[in-house]
Model the fold of this input.
Amino acid sequence: MTGLPYMLIREAALWRGRTIALYGGSFNPAHKGHRRVARECLKQLHADAVWFLVSPGNPQKTNDSMAAFKKRVDSVEQLTRHHPRMMATDIEKRLGTRYSADTVLALKKAMPFTNFIWVMGADNLASFHTWRHWREIAKALPIAVFDRPGYALSGLASPFARCFQRFRTTPQRLKTTQSPAWAFVTMPRHPASATQARQLLGEEWLSGIERKEN
Done:
């Protein structure tokens, strides 16, 4: 992990005392379902902004169908360009972090007076215990878990949910509750998925597949 970029130090003053929802993912590509989640972060979590943390490379996924990083960032920017409180970021690439725990640690170090809420889908909740230092992530900042079709039962029965059951709260209280704290967030479901979006884009999207370095 590299040193903290000047950009984060500069942002620390701007976001002092405010709440940012950190929405990480591959966004391969970003779609309307992602925007729906971001809107609910602003509405239900009362976040001041949503930062889309576009992952340079997801350790949980292969690069076989992963578009180039810039192309994925561009897809988020296109999706959020009309909303001033939603922002596409390349923070993980600037930090040189590959794992969410390292990203969280760096952000909290650079912006100690900013409140962060980690955002993920129920599909990730089911496998959260396989993430590196997952307990440390849960202890570092509140987590908002958004319902996804077919994953609610497995997510709520996961090792994370069992381990941190007594720290479960409501979405509205995450902003003011010290971690560990987590909430399961329900909302009107959106049918869009990244897999469907890639199928619709076809060769146009696949032409930007991220190639592994030799």
Q: What stands out?
A: The longest strand covers residues 19-25. The mean pLDDT is 84. The chain has one domain: 22-108+119-206.
